[in-house]
Amino acid sequence: MKRLLRLIYAPLKHSRSPLKALILFGMALVATIAIASCTANNQPKLLKVGLNTWPGFDIALYGQTSEIFANRGLDVEFVRFDVAQDTVRALLRGSLDLAFVSLWDAMQADPGEENPAYIMVTNVSYGSDGVVAQPNIDTVADLKGKTVAAKLGSVNHLIFLEALAAHQVDPLEVNIADITNEEAEAEMLAGSLDAAVLWEPMLGQTATAIDGKVLFTTADVDSHVVDGLIARSSYLETNAAEVEAFILSWFDIMQAVDETPEEVFQAVGEQLGQAPEDFAADYGGLKKGDIAMHERMFLGQDRLAAVQAEIVRFLEQDPRHGRVIREDLEINPKPVENAIQAWKQ
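Given the sequence above, the corresponding structure tokens read:
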């Protein structure tokens, strides 16, 4: 760049004509701006992405250690939240560019000027979540009149409604203890609950500790427990290229999980302070969000829209959640469609 500027400024330095000097100065100024612009455009695009601790989201950490994000022209900063709804609020208020959240949580987003758009699927639960019961309870149908722990309005509530629907049990025939996973585990161990909705590894560990039964897991159905990525609709309009690059990076990560899983789980486990085999076991309870998953969810069968409608139906059957459900959540297939086309080229 310095060499180019010397070539431009040299004639200007030795010119005695005011007009010529002015023209050359203008040329130099334009060239300087153009060069600065090119330099800036070569810098990675910073994306702030919110997430909660969940193996389906944490797998994205591999994009940093492997330089997948950098190779796609991105500098990704992950911002971790303890509560999913806080992640959604931060996104809608403009503090985040993108956010990993479940479809269920996105549908509970606070109303406002900004609308969330669901643009990618990270995973679908496939055995990671389920219902564990005390030894004297054999089936989901046996839960009628019993008390089951499931935090109302959370994904655990959705899992329970999914289990009841699969066994044709009216939700209102079952009592729900509105408590956290940790509280539910403790009460199950104490024998003061009939059953609880938990996720792995807590689900299996609790069943073993009480000599109980896992009555249902999300592997038993085509689950509605879908996790993914959201953006503000207004953000998509002006940042399509960056969003597409992020989705392409995600496809790169999914390919790495297929081809070099040990390397991926080792890298992610180190970042989480978790043994790679433990992270691999947690991730193993999910159907991963590869291209085939996205073709099913967004294109062709349009499964994601069907899941959204069925979730609304579940919540209408059990109003104890007390939440206002946003049926206007946008499902935008365009970013995924563009990324798939670019991937296949």
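The chain has three domains: 2-41, 46-124+225-344, 129-220. Try to locate this feature in the token string yourself.
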